[in-house]
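Is this the right way to post structure tokens for a design question? Let me know if I should format differently. Anyway, here goes:
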């Protein structure tokens, strides 16, 4: 028995080193792997049952198999030419934090299960608020909660809105007792997690009013006011206004200042979904776009986007953390109530993964100045791209970037193909080289390339190479 225990310990060091070597290679030599590997073989595997192994196997063998499998269907987010949905190359310090938190198996769900984890969780929430310049009240509980991602943070915000505005009686007796027909407002470019959450909360998707946007992807304020008035006239009860602080498609930021006053005029909860863009709210260069974020009752931030930490961490910041307690408090006869802060009383999950340690370590490692520099790098790169596009007569810019997202298309093409077709063909051809990954955006019925600068190492040379590759593909198509 003693021998086995020793073996397990030594396995951890030897095999852990194999894993670290794999990560080192993926981080420092990302060009060794395709940006997006073809995954045809994996599809077959998905459709065929895999049987649970009955006998065990050496750890080293399993690690090799796991690594080989991952690289057979690998989305290379560490590659500087990965321009897909906002998935970052994670900072090594954050990864080490995650490992430490999982390895020691601490949970910030309850004080008794992780006092240190609870404290670090609360500190990290404060640091995010400070980083984005969101002021909240000083109380006994943290002003926010970590979640598995932006969708869960948005869903939690909508629950706060529902409970506060429709009345807490509803928490016990359910929606059937409510005499109100609730309505929620968001721009047509807002994230789909909002209507998923409305369904989940029993409010129904139809209560969402998706308001038209202007040519820059920002909510149209007149249309919003019109819709609210119409709804009130027919007896509806507006409960929540969602402003978007960086749309997924174009990175557009709503006029939060104006939305804050609309929400106040109609006694609505004001939530800002700044999952992607919120980290730019306090950067001197971008602060003006986010003016009014401080009027929000709650804000969603996804650190696993432009704070460069691994997936699985979102957060909901609140002006007043006691709203979370009022909406999520629960107890049981087996739970001895002491005066300790138990974070399971502030969100849906009970036991949960300790997600904040990696981010806490990253904040300490980089400092807010270091983080700002990384954000500036991504913006500098996106402006270089916008300038390149504008200097190229075949290309057409959709709009000047606000955040590190740039949308453009091939605007003229002499041959028989339609503009949309040529854009689609070039996007596919570029991606199939395995050297670049850009996505397509359908903007008002037309296809555009969507390039998101997710990696703080992506620089102007990478952008020049991407533009050259696009122009090269156009030439090849011209020859056909
Ligand atoms: C604006 C916005 N809100 C919400 C979400 C959902 O976040 P998650 O995918 O972490 O659930 C996203 C994801 O991209 C987003 O861009």
């Amino acid at each position: 028995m003693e021998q086995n225990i020793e073996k397990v310990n030594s396995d951890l060091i030897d095999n852990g080193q194999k894993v670290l070597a794999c990560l080192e290679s993926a981080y420092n030599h990302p060009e060794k792997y395709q940006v997006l590997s073809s995954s045809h073989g994996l599809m077959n595997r998905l459709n065929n049952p895999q049987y649970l192994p009955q006998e065990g196997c050496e750890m080293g063998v399993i690690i090799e198999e796991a690594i080989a499998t991952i690289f057979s269907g690998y989305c290379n987010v560490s590659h500087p030419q990965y321009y897909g949905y906002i998935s970052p190359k994670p900072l090594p310090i954050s990864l080490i934090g995650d490992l430490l938190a999982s390895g020691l198996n601490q949970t910030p769900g309850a004080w008794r299960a992780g006092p240190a984890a609870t404290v670090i969780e609360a500190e990290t929430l404060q640091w995010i608020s400070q980083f984005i310049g969101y002021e909240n009240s000083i109380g006994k509980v943290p002003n926010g909660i970590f979640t598995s991602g932006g969708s869960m943070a948005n869903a939690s915000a909508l629950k706060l809105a529902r409970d506060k505005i429709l009345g807490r009686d509803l928490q016990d007796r359910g929606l059937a007792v409510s005499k109100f027909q609730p309505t929620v407002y968001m721009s047509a470019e807002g994230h789909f997690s909002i209507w998923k959450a409305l369904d989940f909360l029993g409010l129904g998707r139809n209560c969402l009013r998706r308001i038209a946007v202007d040519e820059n992807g920002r909510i149209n304020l007149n249309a919003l006011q019109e819709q609210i008035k119409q709804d009130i006239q027919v007896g509806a009860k507006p409960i929540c206004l969602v402003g978007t602080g960086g749309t997924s498609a174009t990175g557009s930021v709503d006029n939060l200042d104006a939305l804050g006053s609309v929400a106040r005029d109609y006694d609505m909860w004001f939530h800002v979904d700044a999952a992607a863009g919120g980290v730019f709210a306090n950067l001197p260069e971008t602060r003006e776009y986010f003016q009014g974020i401080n009027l929000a009752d709650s804000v969603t931030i996804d650190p696993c986007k432009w704070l460069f930490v691994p997936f699985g961490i979102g957060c909901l910041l609140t002006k007043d953390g006691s709203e979370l307690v009022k909406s999520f408090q629960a107890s049981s006869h087996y739970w001895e109530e002491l005066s300790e802060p138990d974070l399971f009383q502030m969100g849906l999950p009970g036991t949960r993964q300790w997600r904040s340690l990696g981010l806490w370590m990253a904040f300490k490692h980089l400092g807010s100045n270091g983080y700002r520099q990384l954000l500036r790098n991504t913006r500098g790169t996106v402006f270089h791209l916008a300038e390149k596009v504008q200097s190229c007569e075949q290309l057409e810019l959709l709009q000047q970037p606000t955040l590190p997202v740039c949308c453009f298309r091939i605007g003229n093409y002499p041959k028989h193909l339609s503009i949309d077709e040529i854009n689609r063909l070039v996007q596919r051809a570029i991606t199939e080289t395995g050297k670049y990954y850009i996505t397509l955006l359908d903007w008002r019925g037309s296809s555009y390339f969507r390039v998101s600068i997710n990696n703080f190492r992506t620089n102007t040379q990478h952008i020049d190479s991407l533009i050259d590759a696009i122009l090269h593909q156009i030439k090849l198509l011209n020859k056909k």
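Format looks fine. Someone answered above. Worth noting: Residues 368-479 form a domain with the Aspartate Aminotransferase, domain 1 fold (CATH 3.90.1150.10). The CA atoms of residues 131 and 282 lie 7 Å apart.
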